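Following up on my earlier thread - several people asked me to post the actual chain instead of describing it. Fair enough. Here it is, all 205 residues.
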Amino acid sequence: MAPKVENVRLGDRAQRRREQTAGALLEAARHVLSAKGYHGTKIVDIARTAGVGVGTFYLYYPTKEALFLELVEDTVARLKIELDAVRAQVADPVEQSRTRTFTFLRFAQDNRELFRIVFGHGASFHDVVRNSQEGFIRDLHQIIAGGIHDGSFRAGDAMVWAQAVIGMSLQVVSWWIEQEDNVPIEDVAAALSDLTLHGMLASSR
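Reply from S.P.:
Thanks for posting it. Predicted structure:
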C-alpha cells in the first residue's frame, strides 16, 4: 500500500476515534447531569462514565461549562430535528401547532436537567437559546403564514405572532421545569395550545 494512502487511512481512523470520544463525553455528561444535577456533576464523574481519563477530558474541553455549552447546543439541534419531523408529518396548521407545542414540552420533560441549565446557569447558555430562537421563529412564521393563507388561521401579522408564541413557550417551559411535580406536562401543553389558538376572550365578547 502506498504511504500516502496509508497515512490517509490512519488519519481517518484517528478522526473517527476523536469523534467517538467527543460523543462519549457528551453522552456521559448527559447521564451524569440527569443523576447529579449541574453543580453536583464533577469532571471526574464525566470522564469515568465515558471510559476515559481526566487528562483526555481536558484535551477536548477546557472546563465543565464548555462541555455543557456544547451539550446544550447538541440538545437544541435535536429539538429542531423533532420539530422539523412534526412539520413534515402533520399537514394541518392547527394540528401542527398543537403537536409542536406538545413535542416541545415533552422534549423539555425528557431533558429537564439541561433545560434547568439553560434557564438557570449563566448568560452563555442564554446566548444559545437566543441564537436558536431565530430558526424556530422563522419556521413558525412560515407555518402561521401558511395557515393564514389557507384559512386555518384568521388574518394577522404572522411574524409578530411567531415571535409571541416562541417567547411565550420559552417562558412557560422555564416556569414549568420548576413546577413539574405539581403540574402535568399534558395540562401545560393543552393550556398553552388553547391560549395560542383561541386567545383569552370569551366567545361571546
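The first helix runs from residue 3 to 40. That should answer part of your original question.
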